[in-house]
Amino acid sequence: MKNPANDISTFRGKFTLVVGGSGGIGRAISAEVSRRGAKLLVHGRHASEHTRGLPLGDHETFDATFESPSGFIRALDLRLGQLGIEPDIVVCAFGPFLEKSLECCTTEEWEWLTLANLALPGALASRFLPGMLTRKYGRFLFFGGTRTDGIRAYKKVVAYASAKTGLGILAKSIAAQGAPHNVAAVVVCPGPTETEYLDDETKIRHASLTATRSLARADHIAHIGLDLIDADPCIASGAIVTLDGGFVP
Length: 249
Known about the structure:
The protein has about 250 residues and is an alpha/beta fold. It is built from 8 helices and 9 strands.
């Protein structure tokens, strides 16, 4: 898949925060953002280690373990204070997955999945939206789960899908408030995707559920997702975009 030249990307020279940017789809996002000429702050539990040797150009790292949205934002503010800069683009590619039926989910699992998959993206939006509105530019890219582009019933991923589905409300709310100020938000809902987080057995099982009997590539998801917000004006703002190739489990 062809990458846009840096001189035609609206990201050129912009500062981008990629939460969960050192692994999985987030790692592909970090690489693609860098190819488009943006400066980067890559977050991960071991971001400085996992990004070593990657062709990321002008980038910094933010090593942090997520425990709560408030603690994460405090740590992030300290790191941004050291750098003396605020992000123009925020990508949240972080979000723990749990495959468990409704009757088996514990209170702690509900709390954890909701905080990580919905409250954290919401807190990032609340933290950075005011500055973007003032500067008259901002982009948010959130990652939903497979088939969380609408309200559906789930048998095995109820807690996870419930939190991810809420991202659509968040993106549409940002889009409505940000439209007069060139601030946009999009949610991408990938299908089963090949990442280093899946063991061989899980890859085979997930691929068997797809029409093509194959997993999506993380770099393809990253490229298409970023294309949606790499525009000025961003006419895709508020969209919930499914990238699952017609996946029906």
